[in-house]
Design brief:
Length: 219
């Protein structure tokens, strides 16, 4: 399959799911997760008009994206991996959105970096939706306080993000994240990956993060 085939296949899956759910397709942003992919692998998607990309690591994004951005100034970069507070300034300088805001110290570091730079990337609060010890994301019970802190610090809160437990049916976790977002009055839902895009879109995802279905399996 060519990159064009892969992109249209993923777009078709999203379109079908949106139709079933009677949702406006414009309410779903496809983020092409380009972590571990070379600039040469990313460029065809940019050439095809795709603009939203996701990276896990700040350093990797710093290596790849300045040159790509020069060629495609309207490309948007989403940081989706766990973020150390000492990388907050780099993240704010580089990203259009940060999907992994998950603790008070990171909110504070991002707020400082935003105030210093004047750049204000959209922020998603990552929720440890399956209550897994090894996973990033704040505990479900801590979401209201973290959202309040983020709002007080003038972070542009766009929504909630989750990664459901690996190997389990994701629908209950997506539905739970959507419920928490409704209760907390946040609009965005960053959820759904290559294997479960349809489920996520049906349950209200506004941002789906798709890697392998667009680029092939990561090595
Ligand atoms: C890698 C990654 C994805 C994409 O996963 P695929 O299964 O390759 O689609 C989405 N979200 C996060 C946070 C990731 O790290």
């Amino acid at each position: 399959m060519t990159p064009a085939d892969r992109l249209s296949a993923v777009r078709d899956r999203i379109t079908r799911a949106a139709k079933v759910a009677r949702r406006d397709l414009a309410g779903v942003t496809l983020i092409a997760v380009s972590k571990t992919q070379s600039a040469d692998a990313i460029r065809p998607l940019l050439d095809l008009g795709h603009r939203d990309f996701g990276e896990n690591r700040v350093q990797e994004a710093q290596e790849k994206w300045p040159a790509l951005r020069e060629a495609f100034p309207d490309a948007r970069l989403h940081l989706i991996g766990q973020l150390q507070s000492n990388k907050a300034a780099d993240a704010v300088a580089l990203a259009d959105a940060v999907h992994s805001v998950d603790r008070p110290s990171l909110v504070a570091a991002l707020a400082r970096a935003m105030d210093a730079s004047g750049r204000r990337p959209a922020c998603f609060v990552q929720v440890n939706i399956g209550d897994e010890p090894q996973k990033g994301g704040c505990r479900i019970g801590d979401v209201p306080a973290l959202l309040a802190q983020a709002r007080d610090a003038a972070l542009p809160v766009a929504g909630l993000m989750c990664l459901p437990p690996h190997g389990l049916e994701p629908a209950p976790y997506f539905a739970l994240l959507a419920k928490i977002a409704r209760e907390e009055g946040v609009a965005g839902l960053s959820m759904g990956m290559s294997d479960d895009v349809e489920t996520a879109v049906t349950l209200g995802a506004t941002h789906v993060r798709v890697g392998s279905a667009l680029f092939g399996a990561r090595t």
